[in-house]
Design goal:
Elements (H helix, E strand, L loop, with lengths): L2 H19 L1 E12 L6 H11 L9 E7 L1 E5 L5 E4 L14 E5 L3 E10 L1
Parallel strand pairs: 1-2
Antiparallel strand pairs: 1-6, 3-4, 3-5
Bound molecules: zinc ion (ZN).
Length: 115
């Protein structure tokens, strides 16, 4: 995924929400981010600082909460948290696993000043 495109979508969500709710300033944007999404969080904040200049979200802090990778084993139905560097079922050693959580990336909430 491309961090700049992602950052633009975050800013657009914030701007749209601000316009709809009479928000004068967005102070904080809370984001959920799957460990498996491959997004470089430092890049996202950096881009955000640049592209948010002059908007209602200028200077907003991005708070990114990481969601662990959760998988289910196709062999023995084990389900749980998996280390992204070691994708294998801890119960039966199968590598045939289904991703249940970990690719998420979404804006959860905004902290704002309102009119
Ligand atoms: Zn298994």
């Amino acid at each position: 995924m491309h961090e700049l495109a992602i950052t633009e979508s975050i800013l657009n969500i914030a701007k749209k929400a601000a316009a709809e709710h009479g928000v004068t300033r967005v102070k904080e944007i809370r984001i959920k981010l799957g460990e498996y999404s491959g997004i470089m969080t430092q890049c996202v904040q950096y881009y955000f600082d640049v592209i948010s200049r002059g908007t209602v979200a200028e200077g907003a802090v991005l708070k990114m909460e990481r969601l662990p990778i959760i998988m289910r084993c196709n062999q023995c139905s084990w389900e749980g948290v998996i280390d992204k560097h070691h994708i294998q079922c801890p119960a039966c050693s199968s590598v045939s696993l289904k991703l249940l959580q970990g690719r998420e990336f979404y804006v959860e909430s905004l902290e704002v000043d309102q009119e």
